[in-house]
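README, section 4: Worked example with a bound small molecule

Sections 1 through 3 covered apo chains. Here we extend the same pipeline to holo records, where the ligand is supplied as SMILES alongside the sequence. The molecule in this example is zinc ion. Nothing else about the input changes; the structure line simply encodes the ligand pose together with the chain.
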Amino acid sequence: MTVQNSDNTVLHCAWLINPGQPPRQNVRVTVCKGIVTEIIDCPTDERAQIRPIALLPRFVNAHTHLEFSDIASPLPPPEPFTDWIRSVIRYRIGNAADPDFSANAVRAGGSESATCGVQIVGEITTSSAGTSGLRHFTAQTDGTAISFRELIGFTADRVDEQVQLAQQHIAELTDRQPPGVVPGLSPHAPYSVHPHIVDAVVELAINSGVPVAMHLAETRDEIELLNSRTGPFVDFLKSMNLWDASVLASVAGPMDYLKRLAQVPHALAVHCNYLSPNEIRYLGEHPNVAVVYCPRTHAYCCHSQHPWQQLRSAGATVILGTDSRASNPDLSIWKELQHIARQHNAPPVWELLSMITTDAARALGQDPSQFVITVNQPLRSVRLECNCDSEPSLNDALCTASITTSR
Ligand SMILES: [Zn+2]
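The generated complex, written as structure tokens:
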């Protein structure tokens, strides 16, 4: 039950779940003018007021592309990957005539993210209209959007123009401090950016302190391209008159990109579905490069098992993203966490929760302390329906629990 007077709100919750902490059952949380002033075990004479809810901090969605938020269901085909990319390109071209399309889709995605309890979003931005669409999300949530400017250009003649775009993006957003829209950079992927763009982005990110996100090791075809410059990506690039074997002459595999990203204080290697034992070990030694696992997109694209558990055991940072509605049915980062919590040998939800809260905030260069519900902090919470009265059954209950409110 919520008891309210002019200044105080008192919440009686069945469970309080903070990242990395044991769940607390039957708590009373007092909030004064938006700040948590007391968290105690619920007094016996108030037990009847306890509501079947679990109280959690709000979430971080480390990776999404909100410009695809108007897509009702994932674009076919899920494989081969190069055909899925063709569908994405067709979708973009089909909507290019509408000047408001991108901003409207980003706004819609921001609203959906807010409803899903997201406080910080790492968004891949492809236009200034997209950046302005993000302001809707930050105003609605008093949250932060990291606007990672997407950079694409495989051939050498695109390098200068893309580096300029990166510089411009940082210059336009550099005065803004969180909460609000803050800059990041995203050289798209090894098959779509010249290595010189990646090098320039790394230098810019070090000098300006912005985070970098890059899709990496997403498919076996990408590994083949990097290892031997053969396979479906060569055909794909040839079909667009972009293939130039010399572009990747200095590259031997994902490790070449991981070593570049490791120089940046806050880097995201998005997907990492196919890593060698050596690359897993390297990520364990460089926790400033966070692997962003997108569980339901991974499942949609029919990949083999993701190495997230081996990565965590090696000491790597692993966080979660939804990716976009082009490969995912919705933008709920909570459902991503539930998806992995149901996997074989997964730790309980409260041990995974940092992947969508504290660890994810830290990986994006943001303050992780706002993702723990504790005294003297503002109450920014997500409430889940949780009709469970014992800890042994709590994990199963959380694996299916829905969000009731986020405030
Ligand atoms: Zn992505």
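What to look for in the output: The domain at 59-346 is CATH 3.20.20.140 (TIM Barrel). Residues 63, 65, 215, 270, 323 surround zinc ion (CB under 6 Å).

Section 5 describes how to batch many such records.
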